[in-house]
Structures are given as C-alpha cells and as structure tokens.
Specification:
Blueprint (H helix, E strand, L loop, with lengths): L6 E5 L6 H12 L9 E5 L4 H8 L4 E5 L16 H6 L4 E4 L2 H6 L4 H13 L3 E6 L3 H5 L3 H12 L11 E5 L13 H18 L2 H4 L3 E5 L7 H4 L7 E4 L6 H12 L1
Parallel strand pairs: 1-2, 1-8, 2-3, 3-4, 4-5, 5-6, 6-7, 7-8
Helix pairs in contact: 1-2, 5-7, 7-8
The protein binds 2-phosphoglycolic acid (PGA).
C-alpha cells in the first residue's frame, strides 16, 4: 500500500511573542527529529527571524500567515513576498477566513496575492470554506467554487504543484465543532471537480488538500481515516506543545 506522508501545518494566528515562539520551537524541535512529515508553522511576522534561525536544518518549516500582492511600494504596514523569500520563508497562507472577515480580503485580492507569491517561488496554502449561513442555505458547493475559481483565476498550470488547498469550514474554526469525515470527503471531491474544470487532469494531481477546523489530539485519529486527506491545518491546539506533539505523533505513526 502506498504510504502517504501527511502535511502537518500549524496556524499560530496572532499568538506568541518572539520569546514565546523561541520557547515553543525549542520544545518542539528536539521531539520531532524522527518525524518524516513536513511540519509547517505559520508564525507571526515578528517571530520569523528567530523561528527561521532556530529551525534551520530541522524538519520544522516556517511559513507566513499573509503577504502583500506587490513586492515593494507605498503600502504602509505590509510585508511582501520577496521580503519573506529573503529570510528563507517558503510557504505563505492566503485567504484564511479571519483575513477575509477582519481585513476585508476579497477573492480578487487573494488572487493577486497568490500570483505574486507564486512568481516569487513561495508555496501557497489557499484556505477556502463555507460559513454557517452558506451551509444552512445549502450553497456550500457554490461558495467554494467561487472562492477557488477566483483565487486561481489565470494562475498558470506550471505553478499548481506549489499550491495546497486547505478546506476550513468557517463554522468549525475555533468552535470545537468540526466537519464529519463524510462532509470533508464530499467537499474534497467537489474541490477536485472544480479544479478539473479549470486545469488539466495531470496538473491537478499535484495539488494537495488539507482539512482544518477544531482539530485536536482526541479527534485527529478520526480524520486520519479519510482516504483523500493530504494533511491538516491546526490552529488553537498548535499553541500547546503537548497537545500539538500528540497530534504530530498520531499523524506520523
Ligand atoms: P482551529 O483553527 O484549529 O483553532 O479551529 C484552525 C485555523 O483557523 O486554521
């Protein structure tokens, strides 16, 4: 049977000062040396310097939670893809529902960000997912379809291997409520169908799909039963060393 090394990613959101980040990474890195899975930590910008330094030559990778769609210019307070690249960042999370909600990020802006990030050689984790209202109105497929079609509009096929999609239903984020395996499987199939309408079969085979939303050390084993799962995105529980290590252990076993 083919062995799949699932991607383990952690979204710290606006948590951990540089000192706290240093402590957490020090604790983690000695305990994951034998783990073969890719572990990506999406850390706040201010933590990146210390985080990239500490994770050099380890299997922990540091990613950014956002970037701008231009590489330089009069955009006060923003960070560009080429700035990230210069300090050794290889991944960027784009389209997270909290950025869509609190920072008014539209699908059009996300599309621009994706194109610039890819051109700079970054790998993009694109977050998509329906709200509770979308779910109640039975428009989940439509919502995800629009998000993907717009986010990947005019993205060249050659870049698809650098794209990972994270399915994160908004109602499952930080709520303790999570999607069932049936729901996740059905959305993964919908995502593949949407991608097939946009790109060639061979190109989309390289795109990996993750699930995120209230993953914890108890429920992780359940998600691992999903055949189509390529990895996970963990929020709150990735801030707690012991819990995150338990999750890593379950996934990597
Ligand atoms: P959560 O967050 O695990 O705390 O639900 C997931 C995310 O927002 O990426």
């Amino acid at each position: 049977m083919e062995e799949k090394n699932l991607i383990i990613s952690a979204n710290w959101k606006m948590n951990k000062t540089p000192k706290e980040a240093e402590n957490l990474i020090e604790e983690l890195k000695s305990k994951v040396t034998k783990v073969k899975n890719e572990i990506i930590i999406f850390a706040p910008f201010i933590d990146m310097h210390v985080a990239t330094k500490l994770t050099k030559d380890t299997n922990l990778k540091i990613g950014a939670q956002n970037c701008h769609f231009e590489n330089f210019g009069a955009y006060t307070g923003e960070i560009s893809p080429n700035m990230l690249k210069e300090i050794g960042i290889k991944y960027v999370l784009l389209g997270h529902s909290e950025r869509r909600l609190y920072c008014n990020e539209t699908d059009e802006i996300i599309n621009k960000k994706i194109k610039t990030a890819l051109k700079e050689g970054l790998k993009v984790i694109l977050c998509v997912g329906e709200s509770l209202q979308d779910k109640n109105f039975n428009v989940v497929e439509e919502k995800i379809s629009v998000q993907i079609k717009k986010a990947l509009y005019m993205v060249e096929e050659k870049y698809l291997e650098k794209i990972i999609i994270a399915y994160e239903p908004v109602w499952a984020i930080g709520s303790g409520v999570y999607a069932s395996n049936e729901e996740i499987t059905s959305i993964f199939r919908i995502i593949k169908k949407i991608l097939l309408n946009m790109f060639s079969t061979s190109a989309i085979q390289k795109i990996k799909i993750l699930y995120g939303g209230s993953i914890n050390a108890q429920n992780i084993k359940n998600f691992l039963k999903i055949k189509e799962l390529d990895g996970i995105l963990v929020g709150g529980e990735s801030l707690k060393t012991e819990e995150f290590l338990k999750i890593i252990k379950s996934v990597s076993n």
